[in-house]
Design brief:
The protein is an alpha/beta fold. It is 43% helix and 18% strand. A seven-stranded parallel beta sheet has the order 3-2-1-4-5-6-7, sandwiched between helices. A six-stranded parallel beta sheet has the order 10-9-8-11-12-13, with helices on both faces. Helix 1 (23-37) crosses helix 15, helix 3 crosses helix 4 and helix 4 packs parallel to helix 5 (131-139).
């Protein structure tokens, strides 16, 4: 257990933009209790009104605070966050997601929190909101370092946001390998799948960058040659557009929207192919989970996904927004079970070797120790 010179446990405040169900909030849900169990006094602050992940954090014994920001430009949150930091008196602040990063840097500068004890984190290769890159370029000096969860994220921050390499840290994401590897498959009838149908699975937040329109178009092509059922596990702002695309193509019998699910490991065990047609990623946890579960993966050739998928070795890669090539790739995995199984096994071994949750959390703890040691000095 780590202690400060005063003999007390160090206090760590995580600051995140929101606690809606998504990759980064769920990452924090796994990280915060592990850091608490390593001897830190941990709390989480959300800039926006708390989402569903708040209750799961509290159930895990983590205090959750909120700034109740009304939007990205609600400047009242600067005062509210400053008060939260003052009241909690952290030895270390770790912010996650762009708005939390910028708010944390500005609050730190205004209220005198030491910048060398502020760690910021980005988990996506930003292509939609390029002004985020300008924001990072202008404010990165107000924190100790920027953490990226994949080589692609770190390279992107260096090349596009002009953050110097010495201010960037790589902490690879991780997954609970045993949980996904040991899960029992859900009966296919419970998922609305017929005995003769092959199951294609997508998991995530329904967002325009996830390429679900391309996936629906690809399934429209695949169904002409294969009896398939596409399962979409997740929810989000793009759901209405996805439903419209399904109806427009007459795919109501081929696609089923499962909504948010807590039994993803069991659903993965029921899948024949996992598909992630994203337009951008950071280090997609959905791919890590599918690989840990032993499901053959096909993904678009974008940064983040290509950090995990080596074409023909640990899965297949296809061009972005190319429904035809995506359909060809899906059919390749369905028609060659031996090759698909070999790639899935290669991927499972890679994840078990390099992307375990324990390895990921150990790297964060090493970073925190480094920061606190320098702070005491």
């Amino acid at each position: 257990m780590i202690t400060l010179d005063t003999g007390r446990a160090p206090r760590l405040l995580y600051v995140i933009t929101d606690l809606e169900v998504g990759g980064v909030p769920l990452h924090l849900l796994r990280l915060a209790p592990a850091v608490r169990d390593a001897g830190y006094a941990v709390a989480v602050a959300s800039l926006k009104s708390p989402g569903p992940v708040r209750d799961r954090l509290r159930h895990a014994g983590i205090d959750v605070l909120t700034c109740n920001a009304g939007g990205a430009f609600d400047w009242r949150l600067i005062d509210r966050l400053g008060r939260l930091i003052s009241d909690f008196a952290p030895d270390l602040v770790h912010t996650l997601l762009f708005h939390a990063n910028v708010a944390g840097r500005l609050v730190g500068a205004l209220c005198g929190f030491p910048r060398d004890r502020l760690v910021c984190e980005i988990q996506t290769v930003e292509i939609e909101r390029r002004w985020h890159l300008w924001g990072d370029r202008l404010t990165y000096r107000l924190c100790r370092c920027l953490v990226g969860n994949s080589p692609s994220v770190v390279d992107h921050l260096h090349a596009r946001a002009k953050v110097p390499r010495e201010r960037l840290r790589l902490v690879l994401g991780g997954v609970d390998v045993a949980r996904y590897a040991s899960a029992d498959a859900l009966p296919r009838e419970a998922l609305g799948v017929r005995a003769n149908e092959k199951v294609l699975l997508w998991v995530g937040r329904m967002d325009p960058v996830k390429g679900l329109d391309t996936l629906v178009a690809a399934v429209d092509l695949v169904r002409r040659n294969w009896p398939v059922k596409l399962l979409l596990a997740g929810d989000g702002p793009e759901r209405a557009n996805v439903e419209s695309g399904i109806a427009r193509r007459g795919l109501g019998d081929c696609v089923r929207l499962l909504g948010r699910r807590d039994d993803v490991p069991r659903i993965l065990k029921s899948a024949d192919v996992f598909v992630l047609p994203s337009r951008t990623e950071g280090l997609p946890n959905a791919i890590l989970e599918a690989m840990a579960g032993g499901v053959p993966v096909i993904a678009t050739d974008v940064p983040g996904s290509r950090d995990l998928v080596t074409d023909g070795v640990t899965g297949l890669l296809t061009p972005v927004d190319d429904a035809h090539r995506l359909a060809v790739g899906i059919e390749k995995l369905l028609s060659n079970a031996v090759a698909a199984r070999r790639m899935a096994e290669n991927a499972r071994e890679m994840v078990a070797r390099e992307y375990t949750l324990e390895r990921c959390h150990k790297r964060y703890l090493e970073l925190y120790r480094e920061v606190l040691a320098d702070g005491r000095a």
